[in-house]
Design brief:
Elements lengths: L3 E5 L3 H12 L3 E6 L2 H7 L5 E4 L5 H6 L7 E4 L5 H13 L4 E5 L3 H10 L3 E3 L1 H15 L2 E6 L4 E7 L7 E2 H4 L1 H5 L2 E7 L2 E3 L7 E2 L4 E7 H9 L2
Parallel strand pairs: 1-2, 1-4, 2-3, 4-5, 5-6
Antiparallel strand pairs: 7-8, 8-13, 9-12, 10-11, 10-13
Bound molecules: adenosine-5'-triphosphate (ATP) (2 copies) and calcium ion.
Length: 217
């Protein structure tokens, strides 16, 4: 179902939100105080307008009260971001999502009634880290400062190779304790057991050796 969104502030975040919403087929009104920014989004929004998001008359003239969702993506000017949020909530906008710059900004936005507060840099950093890790290491148990057990997805190049073929203990000094395959788990893998491509390997070893093994993919 087609929804109506207004995005106020067209920095990298605001532009990217607007463009994606528009691509997904929704109506997007994109607003910025800077005309050059507005020109950037003309072809990727339903309407675009130059305007100050801290001016109630401007917002009303743009018909902002007809929008169910407004995203405040004013960046460095924290005062403007807060005033804009206050006005929008006062005007009765149902859903106001705001990009925050700092912990204090976040706290004030919360008090002003912002419905969702976003920290794009922080959230994206988090997700990237999780993605980096989850691609290989699934779980992790620290045995000591030096030794741990990790669960790691079998890399594609190990498909159909036996432990002997791969010569893992000799090459990396680590030991495969178990091989998970779907619901089954082989808890005493032998040298001639094969690894399959969707297997999960449970591996014990020195952190440096485990790292070498992870990086060898
Ligand atoms: P990003 O990291 O997403 O690139 P930023 O956090 O660096 O953005 P700024 O570039 O400071 O944020 O601001 C985003 C946009 O908000 C700018 O294009 C700026 O012109 C616009 N802006 C600032 N004040 C207002 C205002 N009062 N009304 C409307 N737009 C505003
Ligand atoms: P090792 O010299 O390691 O004691 P081995 O001469 O007794 O091995 P096998 O036990 O058949 O011979 O193992 C041959 C090779 O297969 C090992 O050197 C090792 O590289 C690999 N291997 C066998 N089992 C495992 C395991 N559980 N984890 C990692 N590698 C294994
Ligand atoms: Ca920024």
């Amino acid at each position: 179902m087609k929804k109506q969104f207004a995005v106020i502030g067209l920095g990298r975040f605001g532009i990217s939100v607007s463009t994606e919403l528009y691509k997904l087929g929704h109506d997007v009104l994109a607003i910025d105080i800077n005309e050059a920014k507005v020109n950037e989004i003309i072809n990727d929004s339903t309407h675009s307008a130059v305007g100050d998001g801290t001016d109630e008359r401007t917002l009303r003239n743009l018909g902002i009260t007809n929008f169910d969702h407004v995203i405040v993506a004013i960046g460095d000017d924290i005062q403007a971001s807060m005033l804009c949020t206050l006005l929008l909530k006062d005007m009765g906008i149902e859903s106001v999502w705001v990009k925050a710059q700092s912990y204090y900004h976040h706290k004030v936005l919360d008090k002003l009634g912002a419905d969702k507060i976003i920290h794009p840099e922080h959230d994206m950093g988090n997700r990237i880290a999780q993605h980096l890790v989850s691609e290989k290491v699934i779980d992790y148990i620290e045995l000591s400062d030096d030794f741990s057990i990790v669960e790691i997805a079998a890399p594609p190049h190990m498909d159909s190779k036996t432990l002997l073929d791969l010569n893992i203990r000799a090459r990396f000094g680590i030991t495969i304790l178990g091989i998970k395959r779907g619901k089954d788990i082989n808890i005493s893998p032998m040298a001639d057991d094969q690894i399959h491509k969707d297997d999960i390997l449970i591996v014990i070893g020195h952190k440096n050796d485990l790292k070498r093994f992870e990086d060898s993919h």
